[in-house]
Amino acid sequence: MAFYAVGDQVRLRKTHPCGSTDWEVLRVGMDFRIRCLRCQHLVMLPRVKFEKAVKALLVPAPGVERPE
């Protein structure tokens, strides 16, 4: 299982209707709240769906220690 923290910027596999694939993580847990970096739209996704949708971690949150 991958580790994600509030403040991470991720790239998802599918594009948002605005054309962006880059999102910022706002909430973690059983559900993830993410914000589109282009149009600021907020989306809530279940953890399983979020983890399948993530293509890459673009910018890790500053000051967060990640387990190896």
Characteristic key phrases:
1 helix; mainly beta; globular; DUF951 family protein; 5 strands; DUF951; 68 residues; 5-stranded antiparallel β-sheet
Describe the structure.
The protein has 68 residues and is mainly beta. The protein is 10% helix and 40% strand. Strands 4-3-2-1-5 form a 5-stranded antiparallel β-sheet, covered by helices on one side. A hairpin with a 3-residue loop joins strand 2 and strand 3 (31-36). The longest helix has 7 residues, at 47-53. It holds the Pfam family DUF951. This is DUF951 family protein.
Please give the share of residues in helix. Answer: 10-25%
The count of domains is 1
Widest sheet: strand ordering: 4-3-2-1-5
Sheet with most strands = 5 strands, antiparallel
Terminal CA distance reads 11 Å
Which segments are poorly predicted (pLDDT under 50) over 5 or more consecutive residues?
A: none
Query: What is the alpha-carbon Rg in Å?
Result: 11 Å
Which structural class is indicated by helix and strand composition?
mainly beta
Average pLDDT confidence is: 93
| Secondary-structure element string | EEEEHE
Q: How many H/I helical runs?
A: 1
Shape: globular
What proportion of the residues form beta strands (DSSP E)? 35-45%
Record field, number of beta strands: 5
InterPro entries: DUF951
Organism: Heliophilum fasciatum
Protein name: DUF951 family protein
